[in-house]
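Case study 2.
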Amino acid sequence: MQLQTGTPVSQGIMQQPPEIVTTKDLSYIKDGLSWELLAAKKFAMYAQMAQDKGIKDLCGALAKMHQTHYQKLLTHLDPAKAMPTQPMTQ
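Prediction:
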């Protein structure tokens, strides 16, 4: 299967991002960035507030996961601007 841009697709996963990002695509990516950043900040805050070690660890892991997703989305917009993942601090 191939997309209209000629990008090969195997099992529903693109091997490379398309050469052209439409306005709608960019809007979806921006929304995703906003959601991931908000989730990362909230879970980092919850990790600091939590009293129970298990909940603190879980929230910390979820904050890191969302920050990783944020960085991955950012690389699709501009690979040069993506920074290495660093722990979130509040």
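The chain has one domain: 23-90.
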